[in-house]
Amino acid sequence: MINLSRRKLILSGLAATAGASGLAVVARLSQKYGLVPPDHGGIYGLGETLTYASQRLLTRHSLAREFPHSRISPRPFPNEISPLTEEFKRLQGGRFADWRLSVDGLVAEPASFSIADLKSYPSRSHITELACEEGWSYIAEWTGVPLSHVLNLVGVHPEAKYVVYTSMEPDTWDSIDMADALHPQTFLCYGMNGGDLPVRHGGPLRMRLPRQVGYKNLKFITHLTVTDKLKGFGNGCGSVACEYGYAWYAGI
Amino acid sequence: MAKLGSAQLPADASVPSRASTAVTKPAPRHSALVRVTHWITTLCFFALLVSGIEIVISHPRFYWGETGTVLTTPLFQLPIPSSRKSVPTGYGYVLPDQNGWSRALHFEAAWIAVLTGLLYVISGLLTRHFREDLVPSRADLSGRALLISFAKPLRFERPSATEASSYNGLQRLTYLFVIFILFPLVIWSGLAMSLAFASAFPWSVTLLGGRQSARTIHFFVTVALVLFLFVHIAMVCLAGFWNRTGAMITGRTATRKEHA
Predict the structure, then answer these.
(1) A137/B212 CB distance under 8 A
(2) Which of A190, A209, A234, B223 is the most interior residue, by most CB within 10 Å?
(3) 8 Å CB contact of A245 and B104
């Protein structure tokens, strides 16, 4: 039934070779231009890579939608948090005066900041939507210092590719690429709707990334590490969430 | 009645030419590209449906507008248990969280479905597949012809050989509606739920009435697609399941011998 002439065979062979080498070139270029996410392995790697690569090509600099004051949700839903540790309660007792954010890794000068230090830098606010991967969402005004400001203070090395951020909640950390770390709306957030960031919303310090869903917006941030590779952090796929099967890139 | 129905079929005009080529080699009922893209889409649709249901279970409440949480009034809530204990469902238990792989599978299947769909639409335009096989003729669209195409399957009347070699007006309209309205709408409302996509293309959310509206539209378009699937399978069964399925796999139809 199948009529394979020699010409057809040669043509198909050439096409297959061209296709394979084309794919290899695309893979090399994608690596070079940072279009491959750390969780690109496994059966869902194809989807994760297509999503991350196209988002980076289309949305690297775009700004999350901002809303007028009148659109702020009257009752922002505080998602469940782990039981507060003794250490947290001690810091809370001292009104977080002793809370420290330490920064290390590929930086010129590793440093440590108090909440008061962070508040002394030029503050920024945006009224943006926090959307959970489950489906719900609300709008709030978020105030903080852009992460890029703190990264500039410590002097990030040019080979830096990711910022790993760690929460005080046990075994909770995540990471973002430099496009998101340096994005003007990415905040180390300490204020919400005009007041201090409530503990149930991640106070005193939360990572606020309005272009990624809730689970990337970790609460209770204590530590930042700037790095060029995620190997060595957990199982290397970039976050704890990822180890539970959740995508590292969550702009979708 | 059956005679009247088949007389209105536009395919009749092309039957002589088809019949003459059939002497040497029968033309396939469906082209190879239609067959391959059909089955890839089938696989993706089931993956999207299963993972989509799983994602909905984590928050089976729907809202209209931009925002919505368990603290606001929903448009409606599905009467099912949830995989999150923060959602009040009336059930005394919480299902296990399966959103990790569900989201990954949902987006991967969406990518494959969208790329397959693009291939199908582009080739369908180039090969005149839409114009020849799916755009209805004026005769197809007469109220009487549409009524007959609607009434016949309801009386469990099998299509004749001539009818089975093409689509009637109602089928053509339905396929065009699914391909050019429902699928684009489900892709659009899905993309609108991506925070990063919405940052680059804010109108994609605003035009749908907000993020939660996009999610609700995504849900209802899915319901419409599932209804289409049920009718589609029912019609395939009516016309002869193995015959029709075989035509979509091999391209050939058994020459109406399914009773033998």
Answers:
(1) yes
(2) A209
(3) yes
Chain A CB within 8 Å of residue B48 CB:
no
Assess if residue A1 is contained within a domain. Answer: no
Shortest Cα–Cα distance, B92 to chain A (Å)? 19
Query: Rounded to a whole number, what is the distance in Å from the CA of A226 to chain B's nearest CA?
Result: 23
* ipTM confidence: 0.90
Confidence of residue B17 (pLDDT cuts 50, 70, 90): very low
Q: How confident is the model at residue B13 (pLDDT cuts 50, 70, 90)?
A: very low
In a domain, A202, yes or no: yes
Q: How many structural domains is chain A composed of?
A: 1
**Domain extent at residue A212:** 68-243
For B109, other C-beta atoms within 10 Å of its C-beta total 24
Chain B environment of A238 (Cβ under 8 Å): none
Report the predicted TM-score, pTM, of the whole model to 2 decimal places. Answer: 0.88
Q: Which of A136, A211, A244 sits opposite B59 (nearest CB)?
A: A136
Number of helices followed by number of strands (H, E) in chain B = 12, 2
Contact B214, B156 (CB under 8 A): no
Sequence spans of domains, chain B: 143-244
Count CB-CB contacts under 10 A for residue B193: 23
Q: Give tens-digit pLDDT for A173-227.
A: 999 999 999 999 999 999 999 999 999 999 899 999 999 999 999 999 999 999 9
Q: What's the CA gap between A92 and A106, in Å, rounded? A: 31
Domain presence at residue A248 = no
Domain of A236, CATH number, reads 3.90.420.10
Cβ-defined contact of A65 to B198 (cutoff 8 Å): yes
Classified as helix, coil or strand, B50 is helix
Say how far apart CA B244 and CA B252 lie, in whole Å.
9
Q: What is the pLDDT of residues A112-131, one digit of tens each?
A: 999 999 999 999 999 999 99
**What pLDDT digit, counting tens, does each position of A24-55 carry?**
888 888 888 889 999 998 899 999 999 999 99
Distance of CA B240 to the CA centre of its chain: 20
**How many Cβ pairs within 8 Å bridge chains A and B?**
126
